[in-house]
Amino acid sequence: MPAKRRCQPASVPALKQSGNECFKNGQYGEAASFYTQAVTLLQKSGTNSPEELSVLLSNRAACFLKEGNCTDCVKDCTASLELVPFGVKPLLRRAAAYEALERYRLAYVDYKTVLQLDCTIKAAHDGTNRMTQALTEQDGPSWREKLPPIPTISLSDRERLAEAGAKAQGDRISTAQQNGTTAKVDRVPSAEAVKRAHALKEEGNAFVKKGEHKAAVEKYTESIELNPKEVTTYTNRALCHLSLKKYQEAKKDSAEALKLDPGNVKALYRRAQAHKELKDYKACVADLNALLKTEPKNVTALKLLHDVRKIQK
Fold it and tell me: Is the pTM of this model over 0.85?
């Protein structure tokens, strides 16, 4: 039976649920209508619930995106992000809408912002790669100079998002236990663990500046134990291993970073350096070529590639 024949639910949660059901059934117009009713009801109630309103706007944006109404999708996503900054879903939906509208610079910024929040999201990696190609064709090699600023996500925002992730994980586990099933989920570091890991990484950075690479490795290792999802900690430790001539360890850390962020330029360069020292020139060239697809004018990568080519002759 079409959703519009049902009795209209009177509460925000019921309207939202009806919208969700319509969306799952591909009834995007009906879903948007339910979300709009929920938004109106929530706003009229005077309830101060920015999180709930943000979700409703993001959900309605998903409907607009499915229907090809990218302009309204951008508006709803922007409103959602004003209420709750750095929401992954509205950022991804707005990025996709910007991409469809051929506003590639803004799409690139949103995709890169998502990767700061969670570098394991494939859609953001794929979107970043598409935008890199489109912007290179549109603006030439200096396309990065024309980008709007990419937001820097503060530690407090990272902690808030980590808390939300930990809560969501707990909810999933609880639901699975109630249903008599088991849930396989990645460990989400607590907000306190993220904060401590960040502090340890900064201590490691301070040791690097002093040239104390062994001490830095110890700090980075402690940081990774607390938060194994921070890409820069792996690339920083890889740099230290290179300085200590521990090339296998540098290669491993770079590989771990690339698992989290497949296009990471520093990880590709440092693994290429390790491959060169280990005399695996073919692998070195492969990593440098992958890097240069993203940054074709990277001077240090071009120099290393030139040096390796000379060795291979």
Answer: no
